[in-house]
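Sat 14:20. Reprocessing the chain from the morning session after the first attempt stalled halfway. Input below, unchanged.
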Amino acid sequence: MPEGAPPGHGRPFPKPPREKGSPLLAGGFGPPYRKVGSARREGSPPPSARVGLTPPWRWRAVGPPDLRSPRCPTPLTKREFGQFLAVAFALGYVPALAIGAGTAAVGLALSFLIAFSPALATLTSGAARRAARGSLRRPRGRWVLIGIAVGWGLHLTQVVVFAAAGLAQWDHVRFPLARDGSGLERADQIHSVLGDGRQPWALFVFNLLASWALPAFVDGLTWAIGEELGWRAVLQPELERRWGLVRGTVATGLIWAAWHLPVKFGADDTLPTVASTLLFFSANTIASAFAFGWLTRRAGSVWPASFAHAAHNATVGRSFLILPGAAWSTGAYHLVANLAFGGLFAYLSARQARGVAAAPAGAAEGYSSPAS
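Finished this time. Tokens:
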């Protein structure tokens, strides 16, 4: 035995242990999860993910527990991505053209088909099916409430912007005020959950929030999930993987707006009306895409985005203020509200991505469940 060797060893120093994922294991030796380049449950993220070649929200079981997202194990090919978009738009456009020609039952069935066309489009490829299935994991209960609050956020942002500009007016037709100023005389045109008679201000606020929350919860479980399963589980992660966070989310919002065109326009719309609706509605969907995308990545599930989508729709027609429509004269205020709302979640998304990319190796060892 050489001089200076520790007792019981045949060489001066013990053989250093092989690190998991070392080049010695990359040639086919050892179990697959220990090879370089695989997103394994143990240890640090793969080198390609650490340098930013793979978006953080597509890592599997990597990052702090509160920053995981639905699993999307394999990217879609160009052909698969094209098939997904073609089916989503075909099932969204064709029924919309015939929705007024049949009975009420036929119209309801066609509306259901339109709402679920993005979800049905996920059946066009195995990668899309796996992404959609992985996004349906059950979130923590608080993310349902956060999703509903985020869905209300855009409408409340518009209320603040238009009220500050002096353009918002109280809706005296649906919410007539009591003569003594103690509350409302009635609220009988918004399907109030807690009654529609005379009510003080505290009861009215609680009644209004309940009337927004109940449809958000019901529609989130039944209708909005049809859209969000396609847009948030497949479309947005795929575009963000191809083009980056900001450009991918903007592209998602534009595609989302284009998918809504048959139900947004009528035969008697003039060209200025069409142009203003395209601009301001697209700004709305882009801002919502930033918010709903952040919710999906943060909660590790598509359900909070579904509840947020339904909550936003629930505020339409149930607002206590009369806000200006999407016209050119007031369009700047719509853009300011959308920019403020979308900019907040764009900042949160970018901060989230930087936080995951900067996470130390092994920080999330063994994690694979949704965010707590």
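The first strand starts at residue 169 and ends at 170.
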